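Researcher: Sit down with what I've pasted below and flag anything odd:
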Amino acid sequence: MTTLFLATTGGHLEQLNDLAARIPGTGPRLWVTHANEQSRSLLADREVEFVPYVRVRNVPDVLRCVPRAHRMWRRYGVTRAVSTGSGIALGYLPYLASRGVECHYVESVARVTGPSLTGRVLHHVPSIRRYTQHTRWSGPRWQFAGSVFDSYRAVAPGIADRCTGPVLRVVVSVGTAAEFPFTRLVRALIPILSPGGELARYTGRTVQVLWQTGCTPVESPAVTPVPFLPAHELAAALRSAHLVICHAGAGSVLGALAAGRHPVLAVRRSREGEAGDDHQSQLAAELARRGVATVLDPEEITAARLVATLDHDVDRPDSPPAFGLAS
């Protein structure tokens, strides 16, 4: 069995990488995604086909995927396909399903109360098996086989206590979506995190910040932006960080949790042009309910509130449960 793993970059690819390791089965594996620092680094040791970016809600981009789907089906003998979206799934899964390929679509964990537009469209392709990562809306049409947040648990306050020494290391990650900058978060953090800023004064420590800014423009001389960081470098920075502040995107959250960090999450607002819809608020609320993150609007973030999260961490068993695909 040759399995094609398909996802756009960012959080969708992070989720698929997590779930793929938990899907039983042997045989060749082919990864299909877009090329950037994250995907090249994350998939460096795997068979990969990099394909053109599929823009949000762009029908011509979706249609241009079909000839490539045909070529890969013939060249690699694809017999199974698994995707976490987003729009790229529309260009590949229906065609592959029409060729008899066993197709599975796993809705993003960010969709807490119902499917995305991609999921709603694929709902009308009966041969595609569909999964939700939340039991609250699972049922005959959307199965629950697990979640990328399986087994993450909060470490009780007072146990972590890892903030010692003269330097306070901070990672800020605003995601990589090309269409939606998150200027509001960056502007709110500059006076808090800049050299000699509010956090430095509050703690009496030197504050070192890695700003992973994606497509968000940054003009302040107090910030050294890094638009995109290879996956292994970002993971290392997260593991060594005392504080992680990020948008409430699934990929950024997964990176923080995998590093054992309890992130401070800022939610993007559609009315501010920061997202296509407001699903991040649902994901943030779910993570806060689980006790593995703190949710603050950018305008609510202060040095005192950041310091209050320092004795919270996250733990996870070495072997999360299998993600069983339907037969």
